[in-house]
Amino acid sequence: MIEKLAILYELQLIDNQLDELEELRGDLPAAVNDLKQQIQTIEEQIETKDAEKKSSNSKRKQNDEDVERFKASLKKFKSQLYQVRNNKEYDALTKEIDHTEEQITRLEAETMALEDLVQKLKKEIDEIKPQLEGLGKELKEKETELKQIIKANEREETKLNDKRTKIAAKVKKPDYNTYMRIRKALGGKAVVTIIRAACSGCHNVVPPQRQIEIKQSKRLFSCESCGRILISPDVAEEVQKKIQF
Ligand SMILES: [Zn+2]
Q: How far apart are CA 94 and CA 241, in angstroms?
C-alpha cells in the first residue's frame, strides 16, 4: 500500500513540474488559438462573399445574353407586324411583343440590382480583407514567442514526460482515473500531504484520528473537505528524497 501511495505522489510531483512548464506559456496557447479562429472566420466570410459575387456576375452575364436574345426576337416580331393578314394575327403578335418587352424590363432591373450587389460585396471584402494582415502578423509573433518558450524547455519536458509515462504505467487504472479526475476538477493537485495538521491542498484541519490512520498508510484516504488524496508526510518526504529533479 505504501508503495501505491508513493507512486501516486511521485506522479503528482512530476505533474507539478509539467504544470509549471505549462504555466510558463501563460496565455500564449489560448491567444494563438483565438487568433487562428478569428482569421478563419474572416477567411470564411471573404470566401462566402466572393462566391456570391461570382455567382452574381455570372447571372448578370446570363441576363445580358438573354436580353440580347429577347431584343432580337422583338425586332423580328416588330418587322412581322407589317405582314399580318388579320386582327387575330395582329393581336397574337402584339401580345408576343408586350411579353418580350416585359421580359427585357425584368431582366434589366435584375441586372441593375445584381450590379449593386456586386459593388456592395466588393466593398465589404475590401473592408475586412486588411484585417487579415494585422491578425496574421500578430499570430506569427505569438507563435514565435510560444515556440521559443517550448523549445527552451523541450529537453526538460521530454525528460519529465518519459518519467511520467513510466510512473503512470505503475498506477492501477482505477487509481489513475481517480487521480486524473481530481486533478482536472481541482486544478492540478490531486495528491497532497498533511502540513501542520492540515490538508496541504485546501488547508482544512485533518482530524487527529484521521492523521494517525493516514500515517499508517494502510489504504487510500481522501481529504474530507476537498476530496484530494492525502498521504502521510513520511511517505511524501521519502518520495521527495527519492526523486532528484
Ligand atoms: Zn483538502
A: 105
Q: What is the pLDDT of residue 219?
A: 87
Strand order across the 221-222 sheet: 198-199, 191-195, 229-231, 221-222
Q: 173 CA to middle of ligand 1, Å?
A: 23
* Grid cell locating 209: 484520528
Q: How many angstroms is it from 157 CA to the middle of ligand 1? A: 29
CA distances to 113, 120, 173 from 56, rounded to whole Å, are 10, 12, 60
Mean pLDDT throughout 101-115? 97
**How far apart are the C-alpha atoms of 98 and 87, rounded to whole Å?**
16
- Domain residue spans in the chain? 28-152, 172-242
Ligand 1 center to 231 CA (angstroms): 11
For the domain covering 28-152, report its CATH number.
1.10.287
Q: Report the alpha-carbon distance of residue 46 to residue 40 in Å, rounded.
A: 10
Query: Ligand 1 center to residue 229 CA distance, Å?
Result: 8
pLDDT per residue as tens digits for the range 149-203:
999 999 999 999 999 999 999 999 999 999 999 999 998 999 999 999 999 999 9
